[in-house]
Amino acid sequence: MQQSREKNNLSRARRLPAPRPLSRLLKRQRPPLSETRYTAELSAMGRHWVEAWKDVLRLRALPQDVLAGITVAAVALPLNLALAVASGLPPSAGLIAGVVGGGLAAMMGGSPLQVTGPAAALSTLVLALVAEFGVVGAAAAAMAVGGVQVLLALGRAGKLMKYVPESVLAGFTTGVGLKLLDQQIPELLGFDYRVAELAQMVHRPEWLLEVSWLAALSGLAVAFLLVATRQFKRFPAALVGVGIVTALASYLGWDIARVGEVPSSLPAPSLPAMEGRWLELVLKSLPLALLAAAESLLSARIVDRMAPHSRPHQPNLELLGQGVANVGAGLMGGMPVTGVVVRSGVNVQSGGRTRLSALIHSGSLLFVILYLSDQISKVPLAGLAGLLIVIGVRLLEVGTLRHLWKEERVEAVAFLVTAAGTVSGHLVAGLAGGMVLHAVGAWLHRRKQPGETAPSAEQKKQGVRAVLSREHAEARRPSHLEPAPHSHGWLRHIQARPLLSSSSYVHPKAAVIGRVVLGDHVHIAAGSSVRADEGTPFYIGANSNIQDGVVIHALKERKVVVGGEEWAVYVGKNVSMAHDALVHGPCYIGDDTFVGFKAVVHDSIVGSHCYIGIGAVVVGVEVPDGRFVPHGSIVDTAEKAERLPPVSEAHREFNEDVVDVNRGLAAAYRAQVGGGRGPAHARMGSGTEPSAERANPWRTGDDRF
User: Fold this and answer.
1) In this model, does residue 259 exceed pLDDT 50?
2) Which residues contact 233 (CB under 8 A, 6 or more apart)?
């Protein structure tokens, strides 16, 4: 009779129509038939740009934007000077790039709070181009970079940049940091020896006689002030330090190298004279263009996390804005620019609310050029070297390398190859080698069988339900600029209260209780209950959504071990739980899985890319990857789990659409209530609102320039 009942359930499930993708149901959101997908994307870019400018009028944030813009300009001014000098260019090139490039990107870009200007990550490549093509080559390279970025934007390549692996990007930034140190340490000491030569002379103290101790004092004073005031995010330490050293050196008449003459006006726009070498320069500028695009989009992603109340960035529009900015900077004789993390972070921390703050930053730099050029010409080069040395040290991704070496050796080698290529001047070879090694590592990772082992007798006594390998913990793997959660000591600080990323949203009528960790863009809808009060802790990965009426709970002292960490309930990334579903731990639900309406999952391991049908019950089993649990069925034995059919393409598309729609809903809710952190927290933990640090564990505190 039991078999007959199961057969009836299965036959009834087969008669149910296959679920259509949600995008087909939401007809109002589809473009008209006459509108192609490409033109729809361009229209979306245009609408985003118009709405961002409407925010300038709608939010009425002129006082906050003015203050933020001036504060960012104070930070950007010495950086623009220093990076121009480090790139082998006159200081005016950095100022022009900040004024023209920063202004155009502020007007045209797709990230309202992004601040654009010269970047340390680009300086090594720009220096190489200047060495080959001369000073005019930097302006021509800026135009070439801008042209490539415009083409990438029109080709809708903005979304592809997120696939650049962490190991390659981190290796490149480390290489840039080492290159900066190699260039600027001799500048700080006031002589022409390279670091390698200096290392060979360390045992002979005669080299100390050639050190310019006044220059060294200037640089060390700036570096000390930067390090000592690092915790004061809004304090313009770079500007204050360089200003003090400049005033002191001028008053005492120190004989040290200075910035030199700076024009007191902007030059007329003109096409750089490359004398038939344009094609050669464009080809050699391609790595610079791709790097500038990736840097801008990474910075924009970080700004979105830092300012959840702001309009999220539109990647293709941001590439278009950066392209226009670089073309404009090149026409005016400036250097290549990109969106920069720290300047953008200062903008957010200083209260900037619309794109007007970045535009005011550009106007403030223009004021400096027009009226303060004489003072800028007196800045000691050693003071700027001290600033760049601090930047170089902060670019070294030692923690990322250590993590990769412990977790993924192939990725660590990709990191080292990329860094070595950058330092040695073979950047293209280093980047290509890093990407190839990453691809090899990904292929080897796919070939590995996920190691699932039964818990030992001792673990069973301790309530461990299952032991899964690190492959199952994909949702908790760090991405570039986002260190592993355990590196922040998350679980030491949670202490029976939720921990949310700044981009997640919890509805005011939802309950999130206990030690619950929410990843980026998690959406907890109204009426749901996520209770880690008995069994604890819970983890819900990025882009997952918990819909109305869902209950997540767990038995006391029952766990699943995922990647060496114990969780009562572990939910991967891109998981959807439909209305009134029940997930009761100990449970593991893999990435890209859909749990249907009124479904029950208890004491089970559900693989990735699974689809649990409406009203289905999964109890005490392990469901393999990519299986479909039919509607209304009961899966409570290993034999039933093994006989489950594979999911269809329609099931996969359905979950993708649900994830996409709910991520959009979460963003809309955050925009409506200013970040989703108000009344929702009345139901969380002890009932008090978490601090900014606690509420945003993904905020990097990164000091890249």
Assistant:
1) yes
2) 345, 346, 349
